[in-house]
Request: fold
Amino acid sequence: MTSNRPYLIRALYEWILDNAMTPHILVNARVEGVDVPPQHVHDGRIVLNVSPSAVHGLAMGNDHIEFSARFGGLARTVRVPVVAVMAIYARENGQGTAFPDEPGSEPPPSPSQPERGSGKRPALKLVK
Reply:
């Protein structure tokens, strides 16, 4: 299956906007293909305001997020591979979600209790 990350980013973006909040994305600027203003990168990361009032021409595809924005008064095109997005959240309250560094980099969760029956049923885990 394809990565669910771009779908989750788009869904959370809409959810944040629907709640009249400001969507921000935290980006790992060290990932190949990230094109952001280097002077705004701190510790290899950059936080980008992706609200409709802050960006122009926002395109959230399955591979990249692209838009133009002003940094220090200068217009700039920003391009971020979806795999570089570390988190999307609302600026006002921090609600959103964080993603692992690389898709598929985490081992599958091991069940904390033995499964009942044949063990062929999927196990769901509540994550808060």
